[in-house]
Amino acid sequence: MQKLKKPKKAFEYALEEEISKNPQYAKEICSKATSAVRDIKSMQRKGTTAAEAKTLKTLEQGYAALNNVVSKISKSTKRG
After folding, report:
1. Angstrom distance (rounded) from CA 9 to CA 33
2. Helices 14-21 and 50-79 meet at what angle, rounded to 10?
3. Residue 8: inside a domain, yes or no?
4. Is residue 3 assigned to a domain?
5. pLDDT above 90 for 54
6. 70 C-beta neighbours (distance < 10 Å), count
7. Is 0.85 surpassed by the pTM of this model?
8. Owning domain of residue 54
9. What is the largest CA-CA distance in the chain?
């Protein structure tokens, strides 16, 4: 007699769970990330050293990636 395998539940990261429970949380994260990117760009315009510019660029890319991930997660939770 073979045992039937239970279908595995799809893995969700903590952020995905949080956004699926509270969709407003995604909007908050996106607005904070967008604000941080704006602040970083304004710092870059004021002038920075090469080391600071590299660090700011890395931070900017990180916040932009966070914004993209949160947007994709919120879209996928809306679909089902």
Report:
1. 30
2. 50
3. no
4. no
5. yes
6. 21
7. no
8. 21-79
9. 73
Domain count, the chain: 1
Q: Is residue 4's pLDDT more than 80?
A: no
Is residue 29 domain-resident? yes
Write out the two tokens for 18.
């949080």
- Structural domain contains residue 10: no
Contact 59, 35 (CB under 8 A): no
* pLDDT tens digit sequence for 17-45: 888 888 899 999 999 999 999 999 999 88
Q: Which residues contact 66 (CB under 8 A, 6 or more apart)?
A: 29, 33
The residue type at 45: R
Asked if residue 19 lies in contact with residue 73, where contact means CB atoms within 8 angstroms, the answer is: yes
For residues 69 and 72, what is the distance between their CA atoms, to the nearest angstrom? Answer: 5
Average pLDDT of the chain, as a whole number: 86
Where is 42: in which H helix or E strand? helix 23-46
